[in-house]
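re: ur question from earlier - yeah i can do the single chain one, its not a big deal. heres the input i used so u can compare w yours
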Amino acid sequence: MRTWFPPGWRERLRRGNVVAFGCGALLMVLLLTWQSSLSAGPSQPDRPRPTISPPSVPATPQENCGGNDAELVVATGDDVSTGSVRREVIEEWNGLLKPPGDPRAKLLELSDSTDVRRAQMAALAQAGSCAYDVLVLDVAWVTEFARHGYIQPIDLEGRDDRFLSGPLLAGQIDGEQYGVPFAADAPLEYRRRDGRSGGYLLQLDDNEMGTINFLETIELGGGKVLDGDDRTAIALDLEPDGTWRALKSSRRTLSSTDESAAVLRESLQMDEDASVVAFKEGEAGGQPVSYMRNWPIAFHQLAADPRMRAPDQRLTFDVHAPVTRGGVLGGSVLAVSRHIKPGKLAPAKRLIDRLTSPEVQAKLFACGGYSPVLTEVYERYEGGGGPSCQRQDGSDITNPSLDELAKLAAETRKSIELARPRPKSPYYAQFSELFRRCARGVWENKVSRETFFASVGALEGALSGRVQDDRPLCGKEGT
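and the output i got, formated as tokens:
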């Protein structure tokens, strides 16, 4: 069966800017990875954790830091919406709304890989570059960028009560606001309505989405991985039986029911996009698919496909939020580079105000599927009064109806309010890689129960900036 994608997808796929860095930036990324993982020795859970000094950020003279004075560069990931709506919003700002003296905003799409994008942004920030003025940061990376001095605090001027609490707190580090909520994310369960008895798809590929899904597999299943106010305490061994049972379970309990469905092993090769394609086609690796865990933005990707609508245009799938336990909080914030030139600071704040306005947040939701961060927008949709998408580009994309948007808004808000953040550690990336390697090893039958729980000390060390010693913990030899 031929896979359907919305118009313009090939052109957007080619927009990655990884090649723009060249060999110099690649070396910078490697240096950053090496420096941030300096070891303080093997983990000693029963001893006080040492204070880890962040990497130094050079005081590069402003005239030598790079950048274009005529442009306000917004560094972000690939626009995965069905109509490049983020780019439309930036164009509207430049054409009609930008104050005459402000530099034009430029949306610079970096790698579509969250991990690579983080390394790109961090490498330039550590080098003192002002090539990026505003960063669209995944909420998981805010602590790293704040404590390492890559971004600066931003004053919300008493308007913080506009935002949902989870996304707002995700941008707060050590009592200061470093990121303004831009897009919220939390897991939703998608169900096909074709009456077939198929399996459940997760995204367990070897990237950050794999980490998120393994965390959810354990914690939605009744186990425990993280604890503490900042979620930086490792609790794997506090409930070992429940944790192991949840991780090893071959079934997922369905939202709002007591039923369950088999989790397909094909999930180990799935990321967000691949699972959406498999869900549309109703099969993965020859196995029928009836359920999928994904982000809210997948709703628009599905609703825009004619195959996912009946002849009367009703959707052939449904969507539900988790009802008993929360998943992992995702999403992004808008942050201002520590190295932004002084003349661009006020324009950057004006652009951020526009991008977090009710008008823009509703458009990003209705036309692109990006979940809002403003309470007001959810209340409007849940009350039946939110705007639907009015496209001006002549595309043949089928936009969700107002009723469909109202249902999506209600389920998304439920999930966001239940969701829990990832650890607020500047060394979260180290934890993520190690935890995912161990969890994948269990699923691949390469890692024993004993070895998995022996990773507690190494995981604690990773969150404190210490790398494990030379033991093959959770590697092939660790079974």
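The first strand starts at residue 71 and ends at 76. not sure if urs matches, ping me
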